[in-house]
């Protein structure tokens, strides 16, 4: 079946990054039972690895693939780029991911949704399920931490940015993972130390957990020493990595705020490809 799908795709390819099998562009999402996603394939795609990227609070997969430069940084290196869309956390509210934060109104399990997205792209686009990098920004980054914790087998590598666990504090996870976390040193939206956010409308407070506390969970899960084994400082980037007995763990700090450092996509892919060597 996968060979047949690949042959069909080969007849549809055009020069440059392309969307697949009649859906996936900005105007026409790919729909499955639990939701929808967008996808862009590299030129001359015949199957291979994929990046699944989770948008921030209130975003959509369509908006993500509308950022051509961001997407092409991945497709130019031979990766399918997949951008799922979250659901509104309540009717008429912004799209949000089902992160464990003490606010239990989310309409679906996004762990199940993401598994079904991957099953769909494996079938339709010949994506290699053993070579998946899950990334996400802000609230999407928090969902990456959640997936890594609750469903560590979903991806080979996890590269969240500007988002981590929320309270109640996560104490342990299901299994070790490969995780590269990126954060702005002066991020005020998701501070490294965490912060509380109060809703007057619902009279509830939810709290972003301390990123360092979250990394301590991963050090325990991956059986890493308490001190980082390697430190690098170059061009406004601070990088710490631990030599763990299982999995891998790194943090990349940059001197900006709530965003990515320049060249982040290349750094994330270099790290991911190092996992396979």
TrEMBL record:
Offer one Pfam family short name for this entry.
Abhydrolase_2
Keyword annotations for this protein? Hydrolase, Signal
- Has keyword Signal? yes
InterPro entries membership: AB_hydrolase_fold, Plant_Biomass_Hydrol_Est, PLipase/COase/thioEstase
Query: Transport: present as a keyword of the record?
Result: no
Q: Which residues form the Phospholipase/carboxylesterase/thioesterase domain?
A: 120-195
- Signal sequence extent: 1-20
MF GO annotations: hydrolase activity
State the protein's name: Phospholipase/Carboxylesterase
